[in-house]
Amino acid sequence: MWGICSRTVLGMVKPCALMKPCHLVKPVSAGRVAGRYLSHQKGLPGLPVPPLQQTCQRYITALEPIVEEDELKHTRKLLEEFQKPGGLGERLQRGLERRARRSENWLSDWWVQVAYLDYRMPVVVHSSPGLVLPHMDFTDKQGQIRFAAKLIAGVLDFKTMIDNETLPVEYLGGKPLCMNQYYEVLSSCRIPGLKRDSVVNHAKSSVPPKHITVVHNFQFFVLDVYHGDGSPLTADQLCVQLEKICKASPQASTQPVGILTTQHRDSWGKTYHSLTRDKTNQESVSLIQRSIFTLCLDSARPHTSQDSYRNAAAVQMLHGGGSSWNSGNRWFDKTLQFIVGEDGTCGANYEHAPAEGPPIVALIDHVVEYTRKPVTERGHTASLPTPQKLHFNVTADIQKDIEDAKSSMDTLAQDLDVKVMVFSHFGKNVPKSYKMSPDAFIQMALQLAFYRMHQRCCATYESASLRMFRRGRTDTIRSASNASAAFVKAFDDPTRQNTEKVDLLEKAVKAHRSYTNMAISGQAIDRHLLGLKLQAVDEKLSVPDVFTDAAYAQALHYRLSTSQVPSKTDCVMCFGPVVPNGYGVCYNPMSEHMNFAVSSFSSCEDTNTGELSRAMEQALVDMKTLLDQTPRAKL
């Protein structure tokens, strides 16, 4: 039902995303001139292919805390056979090394294809993350329009840096990072196919788009955001245009075509083929796909308490709340959708294929800061052309597809349980004061929380950035280690001394930091194993037994799929679990508090979003208490 089998066969996990901020990413300092995009890119190293024996050994080590000993013995035998001199492993390794010499990045094209474009579950919840901004200070239509206008102007301000190739180069540990993803998020869109999707970036066309798409009451409009001379519309001018759009769509459409983008990709591929046979529909869809981004002007949600509001806001950004709310007020194939609710609920949703989280978060941080500035440039509003409403000819068959999409979306919306938790006891300054990586500290708290709930360790995915390499995407930090297992098993044992528990915590944190450094250096195991498997497919060889082994499936069954998303803005990103009995956990550690978004499926009896959130909170508090109560001389 959930489609994890196809991803497990390929050695995949939903590649949630995002930067490894325990190594803070820093832009080039003020006063230094950012290099031109192409020359900067050429100076980056290619992604290495790790040594075969190294990966096989590290794979066994990664399995130890999550796989039973008898299974491990079987896997060791398979790996010994795989690594034999002159054997299949060596042949595939040589093939990968040849691929690496001939390409900019041996992994990236494969990765986009198998992780995203071949993946057939709906992008909603299963792939596309949502991002929740702090509640904005407006509660009516006028406030919504004013904020949305400034938001558009802020995005265009950021786009100028992209267009001029003057984005500050980011650095990680003193090394420059690949900036390619920044050039992929605007004017791009996913295109559904019958068996495989594709992505088109219109920013690279001979006539780049000058418009955005605005959705209001399930109706789509083209809004030109540049004048004929190439200058952007001012916030005041954008206000006038958005008012025209809202007046032209006072009632919700009974044909919410956007809901079709929430379908299973095979279903949407068939519907898309039928929909775009009509010339009017084809032109409307093309204008949405070509637009710089989509702005969703959402209706207000019912008033709720502060805690419930955060959860409702996460739902709004992740999937829109269902067909009776705002799920039809979207085009989920669009790479970037900004969402502005009439009640001040704001954020974004992004389609994952072109980019990870860092460029999205950087753009949003820039936009939020921009919206806080006073409007200075007024601009004439009298001669602005009326925004163009997009029309769709909806046949009986398409209407049936719309109704089916509504039903499926509502089922998914009702099943997904999302909780946003603001952990207010302390922030990242506490682990720092004990000379521990905040990210590793949080990951160990998550391991402890899960162990307390289930009395076992599980495969845990945390995304690591490969942006030190040209066109780098992500690899996996495996947070469940032998060191973390030793720590969580000892923590609640009354026979163990506090000094011993602190020692185990320190070792677990160091092991996590070590794996993180290994991963961002291109020496982790998961993408290499995937590459070896895909190389076998590429060479039309039988898939090696090590990839059909039960232990490999278990290693890829990530009951904890996690990511740290730092931002200047006090926001939180959210995403769905990647397995039916799993959790999605995203967090943003601030100096004095931490934001968490936890998700699971209500239909699974083995998971409970609220329980994991509470266990996570308790684990963090207990770990700090342990450190506070243990003499510093022992640390």
Category from helices, strands and their pairing: alpha+beta
Question: So, CATH architecture of the largest domain?
Answer: 2-Layer Sandwich
Strand order of the largest sheet: 12-8-7-9-10-11-2-17
The third-level CATH topology of the largest domain is: Chloramphenicol Acetyltransferase
The main pleated sheet reads as: 8 strands, mixed
Radius of gyration, taken over Cα atoms and rounded to an integer in Å: 24 Å
Number of distinct beta strands: 19
**CATH first level of the largest domain: which class?**
Alpha Beta
Count, helices: 20
Low-confidence stretches: 1-35
Count up the domains.
2
Morphology call: globular
How far from one another are the termini?
Answer: 48 Å
CATH superfamily annotation of the largest domain = Chloramphenicol acetyltransferase-like domain
Provide a descriptive summary of the structure in words:
- It is a single chain.
- With 635 residues, this protein is an alpha+beta fold.
- The chain folds into two domains: 4-115 and 424-634, Chloramphenicol acetyltransferase-like domain (Chloramphenicol Acetyltransferase), CATH 3.30.559.10; 121-416, Chloramphenicol Acetyltransferase, CATH 3.30.559.70.
- The protein contains 20 helices and 19 strands.
- The strands form four sheets. An eight-stranded mixed β-sheet has the order 12-8-7-9-10-11-2-17, with helices on both faces.
- Helix 7 crosses helix 8 (235-248) and helix 15 (438-454) crosses helix 20.
- Mean pLDDT is 91; it is low at 1-35.
